[in-house]
Write a structure and sequence with these properties.
α6 runs antiparallel to α7, α11 packs across α18 and α17 packs across α18. The strands form 3 sheets. Strands 1, 2, 3, 4, 5, 6, 7 and 8 form an 8-stranded antiparallel beta sheet that branches. The chain has a 5-stranded parallel beta sheet with strand order 10-14-9-15-16, with helices on both faces. About 25% of the residues are buried. The chain is built from 19 helices and 16 strands. It has about 600 residues and is of the alpha+beta class.
Length: about 600
């Protein structure tokens, strides 16, 4: 009996120690006896049997052995790792967190018992993550990401656990409660029997189609280079005569041959013939010299006298040969330049409504209204899966966008609609710079804010709009509608980026420019619009003209954008509010 009590006491102490390890964020010991119990399911998985049950079963009690989950994992691309900023993984360096983007096998020559042998090692390319505080790590912006990559020996990195927190747009890592440093799951990866990353399964249909596309592009490039050389040869014949045209043609032929040799290297890349293809492709560097040698020999045979063969080549002949050789670059240059020219030409907008309409047509990519609406709904439906919002609109979140020129009174109407709406209308959530400083700064650096209020404290994000209604409920399954008091600049951003939403646009304006002018003057008298007295060019008249020009441009956008289904001319506040209420009813249909 005493023996049984001793065994039970020892077992109970072991379970208490393991349970305390499960709820403390401390490094895991390499000893198998200090195994961490993560969840109650693992405790059940240990298959503990009481001494009485063991005796009845005819077995003797033994402590549970570590499972496969206690073994270090094999590395794979995409893993989160802890490493140090000092070569060799010294613990006194800065702790860094990164993701594996590449795993490469290398062979190192080392001496073993005075005999040099080759030992296989593994290198990993790590893309560093930005430490944004409180155990959160985020991807650097794309412009900085390339400079944050480094190579490390796989033995110097340790795997860590990470989970993505959507509200923070960052990954959360377990950290030591005393030092605040990230904790590793294991001190290193498992390298025994590791044979490298598992190759991805290739879709042979995609490979075949890409091969056909590559062959077509290669043929078009060679053909374009040959045609460009032919056109240059004809031009040289008309301008300089047959001799220079022949030299130009020889140079152009060498340029086409240069591209062909380069394509051989590309075709054999990664194949058993890669070394042969590389050797053949290196011949391309001698092609310009071969053209000059041919010209020099032709001059020598023609009776030209000089101290050496190359001195017979005149500067005109040299220029014709080099220009002909470089002709192959013209199709490449035109191919790369054409999209830039097209985009620049599209940005040069015509004045007035015609320019705004042309810009909107370019944004729609030439699609018809039905095609554009269909694509927006498909994109919105895909994004709305994350929001757990369903309805007759295919899961799209209705958003009431009230916009118009400054001074038209839209803010007054929006405030009244929310106040008197009985909870049916809510404002979007804005991020507070003071309460969530780290997240605010990160999103601001990445340009992810749709709008920041004039005080600079509150920022508006896409998620702040889409999730505002989901957190409130009117009962009986009805969800409030988010109302956005939007400037024209914000409307353009919403139109371009707010997938997962059905926008109901309401345009608020005045019927004459004179009324806008009166309101601008009233705002200047009240101090809402300030005049910079230090600037000699600023006076009431110049500011009024500038504001009116801005209002005209905004009205043009409101007319031709097609996003605003309702227009309110705000002459009387009560009448305009009733019209806004009627428009808002469509959000619930």
């Amino acid at each position: 009996m005493m023996a049984r009590r001793a065994v039970c006491a020892a077992l109970f102490a072991t379970l208490v120690m393991e349970s305390s390890d499960a709820f403390s964020i401390l490094p895991r010991s390499s000893s198998s006896t200090s195994r961490m119990i993560r969840t109650p399911s693992l405790l059940l998985a240990s298959k503990y049997m009481s001494p009485e049950a063991s005796a009845a079963a005819g077995t003797s009690y033994s402590a549970p052995r570590p499972s496969k989950a206690d073994e270090p994992p094999f590395p794979k691309v995409g893993d989160f790792c802890r490493y140090y900023d000092m070569d060799g993984g010294k613990a006194d360096g800065e702790v860094l967190i990164g993701r594996i983007s590449l795993i490469q096998e290398v062979w190192q020559k080392k001496k073993k018992q005075k005999t040099p042998v080759e030992i296989k090692e593994w290198l990993v390319e790590l893309t560093e993550l930005e430490n944004v505080g409180d155990g959160y790590y985020a991807d650097y912006p794309s412009r900085k990401r390339n400079s944050k990559r480094s190579l490390r020996n796989l033995q110097e990195v340790a795997p860590v656990m990470a989970s993505f927190v959507r509200a923070e747009s960052a990954y959360k890592l377990p950290c030591d409660r005393n030092t605040g440093l990230p904790l590793a799951r294991f001190e290193s990866y498992r390298l025994d029997d590791y044979e490298g990353p598992v190759p991805a399964t290739l879709d042979q249909d995609v490979v075949t189609s890409d091969g056909v596309l590559y062959t077509t592009l290669k043929g078009q490039l060679l053909q374009s280079a040959a045609l460009a050389g032919l056109a240059g040869t004809v031009g040289a014949d008309l301008l300089k005569g047959f001799e220079d045209a022949a030299i130009y043609a020889a140079g152009a032929s060498a340029g086409v041959a240069y591209l062909f040799c380069l394509s051989i290297k590309t075709d054999t890349l990664g194949s058993p013939n890669a070394k042969f293809g590389k050797n053949i492709s290196n011949v391309r560097f001698a092609l310009p010299l071969a053209v000059l040698v041919g010209v020099a020999l032709f001059n020598k045979l023609s009776g030209a006298e000089a101290s050496n063969v190359f001195s017979t080549v005149s500067s005109e002949q040299f220029g014709a040969a080099m220009l002909g050789f470089l002709t192959y670059r013209i199709p490449l240059f035109v191919t790369q330049l054409f999209p830039i020219i097209s985009e620049t030409a599209g940005d040069m907008m015509l004045p007035g409504s015609a320019g705004v309409a042309m810009q909107l047509a370019k944004d729609n990519g030439g699609n018809t209204d039905d095609e554009t609406n269909s694509k927006e709904k498909q994109r919105g439906a895909a994004n709305s899966v994350l929001l757990d919002v369903t309805g007759e609109n295919g899961g799209l979140v209705p958003v009431l966008v009230v916009s118009g020129p400054g001074g038209a009174g839209k803010t007054t109407l929006v405030n009244r609609l929310i106040k008197e709406g009985g909870g049916r209308f809510v404002r979007p959530k804005r991020l507070d710079r003071i309460q969530e400083g780290a997240t605010f700064e990160r999103l601001e650096q990445r340009g992810e804010f749709l709008d920041i209020d004039p005080t600079g404290r509150y920022g508006l994000t896409k998620d702040g709009i889409l999730t505002a209604a989901a957190t409130a409920s009117l009962g009986e399954g009805e969800t409030p509608v988010v109302v956005v008091d939007a400037s024209v600049a914000l409307v353009k951003k919403l139109r371009a980026t707010l997938g997962g939403a059905r926008l109901i646009g309401v345009w608020v304006a005045l019927d004459t420019l004179d009324k806008f002018k009166e309101r601008i003057q009233a705002q200047m008298e009240s101090g809402a619009i300030t005049i910079d007295t230090d600037n000699d060019g600023d006076d009431e008249e110049s500011i009024t003209r500038a504001k009116l020009r801005e209002i005209v441009q905004e009205i043009e956008y409101g007319v031709v954008s097609g996003i605003f289904e309702f227009t309110i001319l705000n002459d009387d506040i009560d009448t305009s509010f009733a019209e806004l209420q009627e428009a808002a009813k469509y959000c619930f249909k």
